[in-house]
Amino acid sequence: MRRKNFIVGLIIFGVFMFIIISKLCNYRSLEVWQNSNKSLPSEVRIGYQVSPSGELLAKANGAVEKKFPNTKIYWEKYDSGREVVEALAKGLIDMGSLGTPPAVLGIANNVPYKIYYIDDIIGDSEALVVKKDSGISLFSDLKGKRIATTFNSSSHYSLINALKLNKINPADVELIDMKMPEIYSAWQRYDIDGAYAWEPVKSRLVSEGGKILITSEDLAKKGVVTGEVGIVQNDFASKYPNFLKEYISVLNDSVHQYRDKPEESAIALSKEFSLPKDETIKLMYGVTVLDAKDQTNPQYIGTENNPGGFAKVLKDTGDFLASINSIKNSPDLSVYQQAILNNLYQ
Protein backbone atom coordinates (compact mmCIF):
# COMPACT_ATOMS: atom_id res chain seq x y z
CA MET A 1 0.00 0.00 0.00
CA ARG A 2 2.81 2.37 0.92
CA ARG A 3 4.59 1.49 -2.32
CA LYS A 4 1.42 2.30 -4.28
CA ASN A 5 0.97 5.61 -2.49
CA PHE A 6 4.63 6.42 -3.11
CA ILE A 7 4.25 5.79 -6.86
CA VAL A 8 1.07 7.89 -7.01
CA GLY A 9 2.89 10.65 -5.16
CA LEU A 10 5.75 10.55 -7.65
CA ILE A 11 3.30 10.79 -10.54
CA ILE A 12 1.51 13.76 -8.98
CA PHE A 13 4.84 15.43 -8.26
CA GLY A 14 5.98 14.80 -11.85
CA VAL A 15 2.80 16.27 -13.28
CA PHE A 16 3.14 19.28 -10.97
CA MET A 17 6.77 19.86 -12.03
CA PHE A 18 5.84 19.47 -15.70
CA ILE A 19 3.21 22.19 -15.34
CA ILE A 20 5.65 24.50 -13.54
CA ILE A 21 8.42 23.96 -16.12
CA SER A 22 5.97 24.43 -19.00
CA LYS A 23 4.81 27.73 -17.56
CA LEU A 24 8.39 28.87 -17.07
CA CYS A 25 9.25 27.91 -20.64
CA ASN A 26 6.20 29.74 -21.97
CA TYR A 27 7.10 32.78 -19.89
CA ARG A 28 10.67 32.64 -21.18
CA SER A 29 9.46 32.32 -24.78
CA LEU A 30 7.16 35.29 -24.28
CA GLU A 31 10.00 37.27 -22.73
CA VAL A 32 12.32 36.44 -25.64
CA TRP A 33 9.60 37.38 -28.14
CA GLN A 34 8.91 40.66 -26.35
CA ASN A 35 12.60 41.55 -26.22
CA SER A 36 12.99 40.64 -29.88
CA ASN A 37 9.93 42.70 -30.76
CA LYS A 38 11.35 45.70 -28.92
CA SER A 39 14.47 45.50 -31.10
CA LEU A 40 12.37 46.22 -34.19
CA PRO A 41 10.95 49.66 -35.01
CA SER A 42 7.20 50.23 -35.23
CA GLU A 43 7.74 52.04 -38.54
CA VAL A 44 10.54 52.64 -41.05
CA ARG A 45 10.70 55.35 -43.72
CA ILE A 46 12.84 54.36 -46.70
CA GLY A 47 13.92 56.83 -49.37
CA TYR A 48 14.47 55.29 -52.79
CA GLN A 49 15.03 56.13 -56.43
CA VAL A 50 13.76 54.23 -59.45
CA SER A 51 17.07 52.60 -60.33
CA PRO A 52 17.76 48.89 -60.98
CA SER A 53 18.80 47.21 -57.73
CA GLY A 54 17.99 44.41 -55.34
CA GLU A 55 16.31 46.93 -53.05
CA LEU A 56 13.94 48.14 -55.76
CA LEU A 57 13.07 44.50 -56.47
CA ALA A 58 12.42 43.96 -52.76
CA LYS A 59 10.05 46.93 -52.83
CA ALA A 60 8.30 45.66 -55.96
CA ASN A 61 7.77 42.22 -54.40
CA GLY A 62 6.70 43.52 -50.99
CA ALA A 63 9.57 41.50 -49.50
CA VAL A 64 10.31 44.01 -46.74
CA GLU A 65 6.70 44.07 -45.60
CA LYS A 66 6.63 40.26 -45.53
CA LYS A 67 9.83 40.13 -43.48
CA PHE A 68 8.59 42.68 -40.95
CA PRO A 69 4.81 42.19 -40.64
CA ASN A 70 4.63 44.19 -37.40
CA THR A 71 6.59 47.16 -38.77
CA LYS A 72 4.91 49.77 -40.97
CA ILE A 73 7.08 50.38 -44.03
CA TYR A 74 6.86 53.71 -45.84
CA TRP A 75 8.56 54.07 -49.24
CA GLU A 76 9.41 57.66 -50.18
CA LYS A 77 10.38 58.28 -53.81
CA TYR A 78 13.05 60.84 -54.77
CA ASP A 79 14.47 61.96 -58.12
CA SER A 80 18.08 62.42 -57.01
CA GLY A 81 20.57 61.46 -54.35
CA ARG A 82 20.74 65.07 -53.19
CA GLU A 83 17.06 64.87 -52.29
CA VAL A 84 17.68 61.66 -50.34
CA VAL A 85 20.46 63.33 -48.32
CA GLU A 86 18.29 66.39 -47.65
CA ALA A 87 15.37 64.21 -46.55
CA LEU A 88 17.52 62.25 -44.11
CA ALA A 89 19.08 65.45 -42.77
CA LYS A 90 15.58 66.81 -42.09
CA GLY A 91 14.49 63.60 -40.36
CA LEU A 92 11.99 62.71 -43.07
CA ILE A 93 13.46 59.24 -43.68
CA ASP A 94 15.43 56.67 -41.67
CA MET A 95 17.19 54.99 -44.58
CA GLY A 96 17.83 55.65 -48.23
CA SER A 97 19.67 54.66 -51.39
CA LEU A 98 21.75 56.98 -53.56
CA GLY A 99 24.86 57.25 -55.69
CA THR A 100 28.35 57.59 -54.28
CA PRO A 101 28.81 61.34 -55.00
CA PRO A 102 25.71 62.51 -53.10
CA ALA A 103 26.57 60.04 -50.33
CA VAL A 104 29.98 61.69 -50.05
CA LEU A 105 28.35 65.12 -50.16
CA GLY A 106 26.38 64.23 -47.04
CA ILE A 107 29.41 62.80 -45.24
CA ALA A 108 31.44 65.94 -45.98
CA ASN A 109 28.61 68.06 -44.57
CA ASN A 110 28.31 65.96 -41.40
CA VAL A 111 24.85 64.59 -42.13
CA PRO A 112 24.43 61.88 -39.45
CA TYR A 113 24.35 58.62 -41.38
CA LYS A 114 26.41 55.55 -42.18
CA ILE A 115 26.79 53.54 -45.36
CA TYR A 116 25.68 50.00 -44.52
CA TYR A 117 25.35 48.38 -47.98
CA ILE A 118 26.66 48.74 -51.53
CA ASP A 119 23.70 48.06 -53.80
CA ASP A 120 25.57 47.92 -57.07
CA ILE A 121 28.49 49.04 -59.17
CA ILE A 122 27.25 51.15 -62.06
CA GLY A 123 27.91 49.91 -65.59
CA ASP A 124 26.20 50.98 -68.80
CA SER A 125 23.03 51.97 -66.94
CA GLU A 126 24.51 55.49 -66.96
CA ALA A 127 25.90 57.10 -70.08
CA LEU A 128 26.56 60.28 -72.00
CA VAL A 129 23.90 60.40 -74.71
CA VAL A 130 23.96 63.03 -77.46
CA LYS A 131 21.51 63.89 -80.19
CA LYS A 132 22.42 62.40 -83.56
CA ASP A 133 21.82 65.74 -85.28
CA SER A 134 23.82 67.74 -82.71
CA GLY A 135 27.06 67.55 -84.67
CA ILE A 136 28.72 65.64 -81.82
CA SER A 137 30.74 62.61 -82.88
CA LEU A 138 33.85 63.05 -80.74
CA PHE A 139 34.53 64.50 -77.32
CA SER A 140 36.19 67.48 -78.97
CA ASP A 141 32.79 68.30 -80.50
CA LEU A 142 31.34 68.91 -77.03
CA LYS A 143 32.90 72.36 -76.74
CA GLY A 144 30.17 74.98 -76.59
CA LYS A 145 27.40 72.36 -76.46
CA ARG A 146 24.61 72.20 -73.88
CA ILE A 147 25.01 69.04 -71.82
CA ALA A 148 22.69 68.32 -68.89
CA THR A 149 23.09 66.10 -65.85
CA THR A 150 22.12 66.11 -62.19
CA PHE A 151 24.87 67.92 -60.32
CA ASN A 152 26.66 66.12 -57.47
CA SER A 153 25.36 62.79 -58.74
CA SER A 154 27.15 59.70 -60.02
CA SER A 155 26.39 60.87 -63.57
CA HIS A 156 27.91 64.30 -62.87
CA TYR A 157 31.02 62.64 -61.45
CA SER A 158 31.31 60.42 -64.51
CA LEU A 159 30.71 63.28 -66.95
CA ILE A 160 33.43 65.51 -65.51
CA ASN A 161 35.90 62.63 -65.42
CA ALA A 162 35.02 61.66 -68.99
CA LEU A 163 35.74 65.21 -70.14
CA LYS A 164 39.05 65.33 -68.30
CA LEU A 165 40.14 61.92 -69.59
CA ASN A 166 39.50 63.20 -73.10
CA LYS A 167 41.40 66.43 -72.40
CA ILE A 168 38.30 68.65 -72.51
CA ASN A 169 38.06 71.51 -70.03
CA PRO A 170 34.60 71.27 -68.38
CA ALA A 171 34.46 75.07 -68.52
CA ASP A 172 34.37 74.82 -72.32
CA VAL A 173 31.10 72.88 -72.17
CA GLU A 174 27.79 74.43 -71.11
CA LEU A 175 26.88 72.10 -68.23
CA ILE A 176 23.28 72.35 -67.03
CA ASP A 177 21.98 71.07 -63.68
CA MET A 178 18.70 69.18 -64.15
CA LYS A 179 16.81 66.33 -62.53
CA MET A 180 16.19 63.29 -64.71
CA PRO A 181 12.52 64.07 -65.52
CA GLU A 182 13.58 67.61 -66.52
CA ILE A 183 16.34 66.22 -68.74
CA TYR A 184 13.84 64.11 -70.66
CA SER A 185 11.56 67.11 -71.21
CA ALA A 186 14.48 69.34 -72.25
CA TRP A 187 15.61 66.67 -74.72
CA GLN A 188 12.18 66.59 -76.34
CA ARG A 189 12.15 70.40 -76.61
CA TYR A 190 15.66 70.43 -78.14
CA ASP A 191 16.85 72.62 -75.26
CA ILE A 192 19.94 70.45 -74.80
CA ASP A 193 22.39 68.70 -77.10
CA GLY A 194 23.01 65.78 -74.79
CA ALA A 195 22.93 64.49 -71.25
CA TYR A 196 24.75 62.16 -68.92
CA ALA A 197 21.76 60.25 -67.59
CA TRP A 198 20.76 57.13 -65.70
CA GLU A 199 17.96 54.65 -66.31
CA PRO A 200 15.23 54.73 -67.37
CA VAL A 201 15.85 58.21 -68.83
CA LYS A 202 19.06 57.06 -70.55
CA SER A 203 17.23 54.45 -72.62
CA ARG A 204 14.47 56.90 -73.49
CA LEU A 205 17.02 59.36 -74.85
CA VAL A 206 18.61 56.62 -76.96
CA SER A 207 15.21 55.53 -78.29
CA GLU A 208 14.43 59.12 -79.29
CA GLY A 209 17.36 59.86 -81.55
CA GLY A 210 20.27 59.63 -79.15
CA LYS A 211 23.65 57.95 -79.47
CA ILE A 212 25.97 56.93 -76.65
CA LEU A 213 29.36 58.62 -76.51
CA ILE A 214 30.62 56.84 -73.37
CA THR A 215 29.18 54.77 -70.50
CA SER A 216 30.03 54.46 -66.83
CA GLU A 217 31.16 50.91 -67.58
CA ASP A 218 33.75 52.34 -69.99
CA LEU A 219 34.89 54.76 -67.29
CA ALA A 220 35.07 52.04 -64.62
CA LYS A 221 37.61 50.24 -66.80
CA LYS A 222 39.69 53.42 -66.64
CA GLY A 223 39.48 53.62 -62.85
CA VAL A 224 36.47 55.94 -62.49
CA VAL A 225 34.21 53.80 -60.28
CA THR A 226 30.68 54.77 -59.30
CA GLY A 227 28.08 52.85 -57.36
CA GLU A 228 24.86 53.10 -55.41
CA VAL A 229 24.82 52.64 -51.66
CA GLY A 230 22.38 52.26 -48.81
CA ILE A 231 22.60 54.76 -45.94
CA VAL A 232 21.01 54.69 -42.50
CA GLN A 233 20.56 57.44 -39.93
CA ASN A 234 23.03 57.05 -37.04
CA ASP A 235 20.52 56.92 -34.17
CA PHE A 236 18.35 54.45 -36.07
CA ALA A 237 21.37 52.21 -36.74
CA SER A 238 22.37 52.28 -33.06
CA LYS A 239 18.86 51.54 -31.84
CA TYR A 240 17.88 48.84 -34.34
CA PRO A 241 20.94 46.77 -35.38
CA ASN A 242 18.82 43.61 -35.55
CA PHE A 243 16.48 45.26 -38.02
CA LEU A 244 19.42 46.25 -40.20
CA LYS A 245 20.82 42.72 -40.21
CA GLU A 246 17.44 41.30 -41.17
CA TYR A 247 16.96 44.02 -43.79
CA ILE A 248 20.30 43.05 -45.31
CA SER A 249 19.04 39.46 -45.50
CA VAL A 250 16.07 40.74 -47.52
CA LEU A 251 18.41 42.60 -49.87
CA ASN A 252 20.56 39.48 -50.17
CA ASP A 253 17.59 37.32 -51.17
CA SER A 254 16.40 39.93 -53.65
CA VAL A 255 19.83 40.18 -55.27
CA HIS A 256 19.87 36.40 -55.73
CA GLN A 257 16.45 36.56 -57.38
CA TYR A 258 17.67 39.47 -59.53
CA ARG A 259 20.64 37.37 -60.70
CA ASP A 260 19.09 33.93 -60.93
CA LYS A 261 15.57 34.76 -62.15
CA PRO A 262 15.90 37.78 -64.45
CA GLU A 263 12.63 37.16 -66.29
CA GLU A 264 10.64 36.93 -63.07
CA SER A 265 12.47 39.93 -61.63
CA ALA A 266 11.88 41.98 -64.76
CA ILE A 267 8.14 41.44 -64.53
CA ALA A 268 8.13 42.85 -61.00
CA LEU A 269 10.52 45.71 -61.79
CA SER A 270 8.72 46.70 -65.00
CA LYS A 271 5.94 48.16 -62.86
CA GLU A 272 8.45 50.38 -61.08
CA PHE A 273 10.00 51.57 -64.35
CA SER A 274 6.71 51.73 -66.27
CA LEU A 275 8.46 49.85 -69.06
CA PRO A 276 7.86 46.55 -70.89
CA LYS A 277 9.58 43.47 -69.47
CA ASP A 278 12.12 43.19 -72.30
CA GLU A 279 13.29 46.78 -71.83
CA THR A 280 13.45 46.29 -68.07
CA ILE A 281 15.79 43.31 -68.46
CA LYS A 282 18.18 45.51 -70.45
CA LEU A 283 18.21 48.01 -67.59
CA MET A 284 18.90 45.25 -65.08
CA TYR A 285 22.07 44.22 -66.89
CA GLY A 286 23.36 47.80 -66.72
CA VAL A 287 24.58 47.38 -63.14
CA THR A 288 26.42 44.72 -61.15
CA VAL A 289 24.30 44.02 -58.07
CA LEU A 290 26.05 42.89 -54.89
CA ASP A 291 24.80 40.41 -52.29
CA ALA A 292 25.64 40.23 -48.58
CA LYS A 293 28.72 38.09 -49.17
CA ASP A 294 30.03 40.58 -51.73
CA GLN A 295 29.90 43.31 -49.07
CA THR A 296 32.71 41.55 -47.18
CA ASN A 297 35.00 41.66 -50.22
CA PRO A 298 38.24 43.55 -49.41
CA GLN A 299 37.47 46.08 -52.15
CA TYR A 300 34.02 46.86 -50.75
CA ILE A 301 32.76 47.21 -47.14
CA GLY A 302 34.72 44.36 -45.58
CA THR A 303 34.16 43.42 -41.93
CA GLU A 304 34.79 45.04 -38.57
CA ASN A 305 38.07 43.14 -38.20
CA ASN A 306 39.05 43.53 -41.86
CA PRO A 307 37.69 46.83 -43.24
CA GLY A 308 37.38 47.00 -47.01
CA GLY A 309 38.76 49.55 -49.43
CA PHE A 310 35.52 51.27 -50.39
CA ALA A 311 36.45 54.28 -48.27
CA LYS A 312 39.16 55.02 -50.86
CA VAL A 313 36.48 55.25 -53.57
CA LEU A 314 34.59 57.69 -51.35
CA LYS A 315 37.74 59.70 -50.70
CA ASP A 316 38.50 59.97 -54.43
CA THR A 317 34.93 61.08 -55.02
CA GLY A 318 35.21 63.64 -52.23
CA ASP A 319 38.41 65.03 -53.72
CA PHE A 320 36.58 65.42 -57.02
CA LEU A 321 33.65 67.24 -55.40
CA ALA A 322 36.08 69.58 -53.67
CA SER A 323 37.84 70.27 -56.97
CA ILE A 324 34.58 71.54 -58.52
CA ASN A 325 33.63 73.43 -55.34
CA SER A 326 30.62 71.24 -54.52
CA ILE A 327 32.12 70.85 -51.03
CA LYS A 328 34.60 73.12 -49.24
CA ASN A 329 37.10 70.32 -48.73
CA SER A 330 37.26 66.56 -48.80
CA PRO A 331 37.60 65.00 -45.33
CA ASP A 332 40.48 62.72 -44.43
CA LEU A 333 40.28 59.06 -45.42
CA SER A 334 39.57 58.16 -41.77
CA VAL A 335 36.30 60.13 -41.89
CA TYR A 336 35.07 58.05 -44.81
CA GLN A 337 36.20 54.87 -43.08
CA GLN A 338 34.18 55.81 -39.99
CA ALA A 339 31.15 56.49 -42.19
CA ILE A 340 30.99 52.83 -43.26
CA LEU A 341 29.04 50.44 -41.03
CA ASN A 342 30.99 47.19 -41.33
CA ASN A 343 30.10 45.62 -37.97
CA LEU A 344 26.98 44.10 -39.54
CA TYR A 345 29.13 41.61 -41.45
CA GLN A 346 31.33 38.71 -40.39
Automatic annotation (TrEMBL):
The record's section on Pfam families has: NMT1 (PF09084)
Looking up SUPFAM superfamilies in the UniProt record yields: Periplasmic binding protein-like II
> Keywords on this record?
Membrane, Signal, Transmembrane, Transmembrane helix
Q: Which GO terms describe its cellular component?
A: periplasmic space
Highest taxon listed in the record's lineage = Bacteria
Q: Which GO terms describe its biological process?
A: alkanesulfonate transmembrane transport
Span-the-membrane segments of this chain are 6-25
Q: What is the residue range of the signal peptide feature?
A: none
Claim: Transmembrane is one of the keywords in the record: yes
Q: Where in the cell is it found?
A: Periplasm
Ranges for domain Solute-binding protein family 3/N-terminal come to 43-262
Q: What is its main location?
A: periplasm
Give the family per the record.
Answer: Belongs to the bacterial solute-binding protein SsuA/TauA family.
Q: What is this protein called?
A: Taurine-binding periplasmic protein TauA
Q: Which organism is it from?
A: Clostridium saccharoperbutylacetonicum N1-4(HMT)
